[in-house]
Amino acid sequence: MTSVKMTVNGKSVSGEVEGRTLLVSFLREQAGLTGTHVGCDTSQCGACLVHVNGDAVKSCTMLALEAEGADVATIEGQANADGSLNVIQQAFQDHHGLQCGFCTPGMVMSAAALLKENPKPSESEIRNYLQGNICRCTGYHNIVKAVLAASGQDVGAIAAE
Amino acid sequence: MYNFEFEQPTTVADAVKALSEEDAQALGGGQTLLPTMKQRLAMPSKLVSLTAIDEIKGVKKDGDQLVIGGGTTHGTVAREASADYPGLAGLASKIGDPAVRNRGTMGGSLANNDPSACYPAALLASGGTVVTDRREIAADDYFQGMFTTALEEGEIITAVKLPIPEKSNYQKFEQPASRFPLVGVFVAKYAGGVRVAVTGASNEGVFRWTEAEEALSGDFSASALEGLSASAEGMISDIHGSSEYRAHLIGVMTKRAVTAAA
Amino acid sequence: MPKDSGIGASSKRREDVRFLTGAGNYTDDINIRGQAYVHFLRSDVAHGKINGIDTNAAEAMPGVVRIFTGKDFEGIGGLPCGWQVTDRHGEVMQEPPHPVLAQGKVRHVGDPIAAVVADTAEQARDAVEAIEVDLEELPAVINMKEALKEGATKVHDDLTSNLCYDWGFVEENKGAVEEAIQNAAHVTTLELVNNRLVANPMEPRVAVGDFERGTGNSTLYTTSQNPHVIRLLMGAFVLGIPEHKLRVVAPDVGGGFGTKIFHYAEEAFCTFAAKAINRPVKWTSSRSEAFISDAHGRDHVTKIELALDADNNFTAVRTETHANMGAYLSTFAPSVPTWLHGVLMAGNYKTPNIYVNVKAVFTNTVPVDAYRGAGRPEATYQLERVIDKAARELGVDPIALRRQNFITEFPYDTPVAVTYDTGDYGATMDKLEEMADIAGFAERRRQSEAKGKLRGLGINCYIEACGIAPSNLVGQLGARAGLYESATVRVNATGGLVVMTGSHSHGQGHETAFPQVIAEMIGIDESMIEIVHGDTANTPMGMGTYGSRSLAVGGSAMVRAAEKVINKAKKIAAHLMEASDADIELKDGAFSVAGTDKSVAWGDVCLAAYVPHNYPLEDLEPGLEETAFYDPSNFTYPSGAYACEVEVDPDTGKVTIERMMAADDFGNVVNPMIVSGQVHGGLAQGIGQALLENCVYDENGQLLSASYMDYAMPRASDLPNFEVDHSCATPCTHNPLGVKGCGEAGAIGSPPSVVNAVIDALNSGGKDVPHIDMPMSPARVWAAMNRASATGHGTAEGRSLGGASG
Question: Are residues A107 and A128 in the same domain?
Fold first, then answer.
């Protein structure tokens, strides 16, 4: 076992891990942050997506030890300081961008990374950016709409239904 | 995963030393190796992470070539190579997905030499050079078949030198599930001729389509490829496409790359 | 003006807040102090004889608590099948045992042989690799038609053959159908495959078993769509635990799509092992494990014939289907190709003669069971494809041909045993034509052609039987369970309500939509109502969520319970206002006496029920809590018309969905936002089936599409924006809400329109391609285009396993 220490959502978190402990396992099992999910084992579904030093990363494909000293952001740290939903989260609720909720944390974190890099993405840019986030419930229609709305753009172009 | 020791050196020298142990393996961004290990298809006793070695990161122009550190992520290449080598940046910007591009590295991709990886096509079409901790290897000598390269045990790719072409483009036709290339074609036009490298298609891994290179070296236009077709022999045949289909796509993607080349 | 609350309002989903903040409580988030972890040793061959299992080395591995094999389950029940089909000769189906851990033989890749329980998940997996199994590989049967040949290897030695049943429906129609086909002016024949799929909810399955020594009570936390069904099946048939000693909890569940209906070996194992080792036992499936242990869906191979008279009226439909059951009968597997498929073969059309034959076949593959739509997508696909093919052969407009044959009078008794209560197929088609802008298609096609692309338009109709189902009917059809639903409405002293429903929510938004109904009935704010579900300890009996039944059946039970509550509350209000209860009206959260200005608030009546100081105690019990069971008198019949426009790249065969439109009749709609979302998701899964998804085995029974590297899940960039409408509403006539169900429509209605569109595109480009099997991958479309002139399309002969490789 090796000790590892990182900052998660602004708080220092440390623990003892094996070499093989994945970042997602550390977050879920040691940091108690179960909002980050595991939906596949081939790095494709994106349910485990978190930010490491500001970059979107699949936490199922990164070792906990590789995050030593890193600044990690997860879904649990996304809401506004007063606990209310942030702009992206609120847009997902307003536009019904989630159903079962399992892919949602990764989807929201991915959307946040997109909007940081590209504050006014087009619909096709959103769809392409979400290549690594699989949702089985929504058909993506309302996710795309939510991301557009979160970026302050008109969602009228997307069919009202 | 099987358990392993983890080490994260900060210099190439320390990494080489760490890799000299038996069954030690280098870990780049881990975007291929970690999923492989999750399936328990690899069992290194030690993983030596290269991600903390700053000297093997970055994109810089050196005369008429681009030098890219082996530890440079796809995302960085996509951003930083776009002015000098748009064909390469375009390729990098479409590998995997954004999160994969933030971790995966050029050195990791080339060392692994997955027959469906994108970067091997860029290296081979550019006639580039692989720089390691101990030597330089020409692209034409580097690839030795699916998942096989000229690298020795414990040898680390520190950089890749890519001559900048006049025009280039990469066209990827995605396998519907993995989104890896079913066929990817990189076309690079240099003063001395055109190089065409194909990935995803062959049982032997990345290869140069020399007939197309000859045709394009005389006339760099899609029409120069009319009547030319790649052979289906030796092409991969699987649930996503027959060898004939892959051979056909090589022609289509090459034409599209030539037309789009900038 | 759209409403802002109650029935018909697009209330925002309250459950979203926890999901959006990482505060959901999924089964894998549950960790019980002291829990151990199980990893299963699964067969890597499709068929084999177990000559011995040596666990000695594994027992000695670090952290190992105990290793279980089939021996530990001798004398314990197997996984039961919940439906018994009787075949066309009056014989009941062949029903093999389905052990929790393999007994002597393995029958598919993934069949569990042994289980290691250890202190950590990795230790369990490490030890699994140290188990030595002497496994003698046997020839495997993968192809359904091969499996039925004389002398074929048998999946189950003690069965007479690999034929589970040979079902004819309606057997008495057979002669008339034959005669109609003989006398037809035109017969269109089509052989097709309904490709095998994997449901792939994003949350893999998880089970946590717990045993309380002090009470002898067992608890199972599981990713289930129907915890009560699991309690009944596992308790009564597998482990012999009476229901009062067994609690099953399905907390937040990350999607189901049918595959989480069934009772699985891992659930029984964890419950059993927790008692055996006196420690909680947890199993978390990886995605790779899910591919070889979750029940698969579809996998039908069908020949369909459509007979028409000289005026293009449909005169008969005859089908012959091979349906893959896999190696064992999953919980509801036998019902899918029969009662959920055969009874829908009339579609939206007044075809007088219909005969359906289904041969269900055992193969050495993962069991196949219900997946979103379950039988109804298979029915719709073949019917709507053959109609389109007929239109092309006859040179008539495919919409006109459909319209001409629409059922127009309701109720309508089909020749396949069901009665459609309502519908207006002309109206949904009218709406679709408006949405699809069919008049503008020629111009859009011209624009596509200018870019070197082929453009096609495909349309189809669908009907489904939802709201499953009348218990007395399904009982006659072989169901071993009732299919009612129940609900308890508990009013608290301060006026808030808790509704405990047997309808589990795993993405459907019950926690939001169900309160809308109650709020409307009482005239109070939705926030005063809480929905409780998913725990057998605190909800009444529940048959669960599948078959688009939650609102139609579970919602109806809730309405009935709420009506009982309101009736009692009226009596209390009558007492408080010294009036007759017949004169009491409830509106906007207040009871009033008709024709007077006397009124008492909802909250005051509730308080009186629990603080019965001024209360008719001699006539009425205190408290305000009622339970109702609702058993529907018929299925519901949602229907609609769908259109798809595609572009095909003739150089690569790649199909791009340009437009996807759905006009549905769901009857009354409680939350239009949620309903649209359900349709979107169904459309994506239907498009996935049509273009991307394929579960493929090789001839040895190895699963080739065993991860997302080879099983193509639809991504955002594969799909267009959807245009959906549900304004054409003919309310269901037999449930109190007039609702029909919307969960499966998108997945049922979309595959034929996509395929019809691709065929239309190719034909517009001069390619005479009558059919391409799903998924229409670029490789398949390209191959079809390039072989079109030489060989025409293949037959189903060579592809008797859904989506055989290539």
Answer: yes
Q: How far apart are CA C19 and CA C743, in angstroms?
A: 21
With tokens 């077709």, the residue in question is B229
Q: Is B3 in Cβ contact with A66 (below 8 Å)?
A: no
Q: What are the b/e assignments for A81-105, b being 16+ CB within 10 Å?
A: eeeebbbbbbbbbbbbbbbbbbbbb
Of A58, A77, A96, the residue at which a domain comes to its end is A77
CA distance C4 to chain B (A): 39
A61 in B contact zone (CB under 8 Å): yes
CA–CA dist C783, C777 (Å, integer): 10
Write the residue in A28, A85, A130 that is nearest to C17 by C-beta: A85
pLDDT digits (tens, 9 = 90+) for B60-77: 999 999 999 999 999 999
**Distance (Å) of CA C799 to CA B216, C143, C300, C302:** 42, 8, 10, 11
Instruction: Give the ipTM of the model, two decimals please.
Output: 0.98
Helices (H), C424-576: 425-436, 441-450, 471-476, 510-522, 556-576
From chain A, the residues in CB contact with B96 under 8 A are 43, 131-132
Which residues are paired to C219 by β-bridges? C210, C247
C764: left (phi over 0), alpha (psi -120 to 50) or beta: alpha
Domains held by chain A: number: 2
Nearest one of C756, C758, C777, C759 to C768, comparing CA atoms: C759
Cis check for the bond before A144: say yes or no (omega within 30 of 0): no
Confirm whether A130 is domain-assigned.
Answer: yes
CATH label of the domain that carries residue A42: 3.10.20.30
Give contacts of C 254-293 with A, CB under 8 A.
254-255, 257, 286-288
Q: C646 and C657 in contact (C-beta within 8 Å)?
A: yes
Tell whether C204 lies on the interface with A, counting CB pairs under 8 A. Answer: yes
Q: Which fold has domain C484-630?
A: Aldehyde Oxidoreductase; domain 4 (3.30.365)
The token pair at A10 is 């602004």
The H-or-E segment that residue C647 falls in is strand C639-648
Q: What is the CATH number of domain C31-138+205-284?
A: 3.90.1170.50
Residue intervals in chain C for CATH 3.30.365.10: 296-405+413-468+634-799, 484-630
**Could you tell me which residues are beta bridge partners of residue B5?**
B46
What's the count of helices (H) and strands (E) in chain C, helices before strands? 19, 30
pLDDT in tens, C237-291: 999 999 999 999 999 999 999 999 999 999 999 999 999 999 999 999 999 999 9
Q: Which of A127, A119, A120 is nearest to A144 (CA)?
A: A127
HSE-CB at B35 with a 13 A cutoff on CA atoms is 18
C93 vs C98: CA distance, rounded Å: 15
Q: Where in chain B is the domain with CATH 3.30.43.10?
A: 5-49
pLDDT by 10-residue block (mean), chain A, 161 residues = 97 97 98 98 97 98 98 98 97 98 98 98 97 98 98 78 47
Sort strands C639-648 and B167-174 into parallel, antiparallel or unpaired. Answer: unpaired
Angle (CA) B10 A67 A63, round 5°: 95
Rounded Cα–Cα distance for residues A132 and C615 (Å): 62
**Alpha carbon of C591 to those of C5, C573, C602, C626, C653: distances in Å?**
20, 7, 7, 19, 66
Architecture of domain B167-260: 2-Layer Sandwich (3.30)
CB contact under 8 A, A68 and B51: no
pLDDT in tens, B25-60: 999 999 999 999 999 999 999 999 999 999 999 999
Answer left, alpha or beta for residue A43, where phi above 0 means left and psi between -120 and 50 means alpha: left
Query: Quick one: A120 and A61 in the same domain?
Result: no
What fold, for C296-405+413-468+634-799?
Aldehyde Oxidoreductase; domain 4 (3.30.365)
